[in-house]
Amino acid sequence: MQQPLRSWIGTAITVALPTMVFATAVCAQSDQRSLVTAATLTFANFKNDPDMAWLQRNLGRAKAVMIAPEITKAGFILGGSGGRAVVVARDAKSGKWVGPAFYTVATASVGFQAGISVSEMVTLVMTDKGLNSLLADSFEMGGDAAVAAGPVGAGAQTDLVADFVSFSRAKGIYGGINFDGTIVSTSDKWNRIYYGKPVTASDILVRMSVRSKQANELLNVVTAATRK
After folding, report:
1. What distance in Å separates the CA atoms of residue 225 and residue 52, rounded to the nearest whole number?
2. Are 79 and 153 in contact (CB under 8 A)?
3. pTM for this structure?
4. Virtual CA dihedral for 155, 158, 159, 162, nearest 10 degrees?
5. Is the peptide bond before 151 cis (omega within 30 degrees of 0)?
6. pLDDT score of 20
7. How crowded is residue 45: how many other Cβ atoms within 10 Å of its Cβ?
8. CA 124 to CA 146: how far, in whole Å?
9. How far is CA 37 from the centre of its chain?
10. Distance CA 107, CA 205 (A)
């Protein structure tokens, strides 16, 4: 009886092991998947916000879009802000949107301030220089690449010349985020976990050597918005 039992156990392990490995991989991706889902909702909210008319009119010219669903800003005299973001980019040849790649954003600030707030941010990448900056390990907005605060309001007609045009909406009581000095860094660990292997921002956004079906909703929403 021992031999059949051992055989049954071995078969059960063989059958169950791939399922266990898959479940572990999905569990490991939970934070990344949650961020992509939140980014989809944030982008949809900005796309439908009547105060974001400039963003909506210029999405079609953007080479990439960076979305940060939650930028936390806190401080008393000394302060700062930070959070995680995803970037999707448009393939120059096909016009197809690809990604996402994962990033962190962080800003240090000094001045009279008090309080804690949470904002969401959508940044349009308007130039090749801006897109190339995102392919580096890290860069400084306003230093390595020019950044402008996006005009808000239904009648906003401002012509902007900048590598990045950033929009934010506060969920708490606080002043607007100052994007100058913001450090944007690639999150290699999050990219590796999400795609299941080591990948760079260039692999994701330029060479398009990896993709995830879980990001289809985000890509479809961005695609639909940029067709108008």
Report:
1. 13
2. no
3. 0.81
4. -120
5. no
6. 40
7. 14
8. 12
9. 10
10. 24
Q: Which two tokens stand for residue 115?
A: 């309080």
Question: With left for phi above 0 and alpha for psi between -120 and 50, is residue 97 left, alpha or beta?
Answer: beta
Residues of the chain by 3-state class (helix, strand, coil), percent to 5: 40, 35, 25
> CA 71, CA 80: separation in Å to the nearest integer?
10
Burial of 124 (0-12, 13-18, 19+ CB in 10 A): buried
Measure the CA–CA gap between 48 and 52, rounded to whole angstroms. Answer: 8
Q: Is 27 helix (H, G, I), strand (E, B) or coil?
A: helix
Burial class (CB in 10 A: 0-12, 13-18, 19+), 191: buried
Q: What pLDDT, on a 0 to 100 scale, did the predictor assign at position 11?
A: 53
Residue 63's alpha-carbon distances to 39, 51, 58, 138, in angstroms, are: 18, 22, 11, 18
Contacts of 2 (CB under 8 A, 6+ apart): none
pLDDT digits (tens, 9 = 90+) for 82-122: 789 999 999 988 899 999 999 998 876 544 444 556 688 99
- Distances in Å between the Cα of 95 and the Cα atoms of 16, 65, 137, 219, 223 are 42, 14, 25, 12, 9
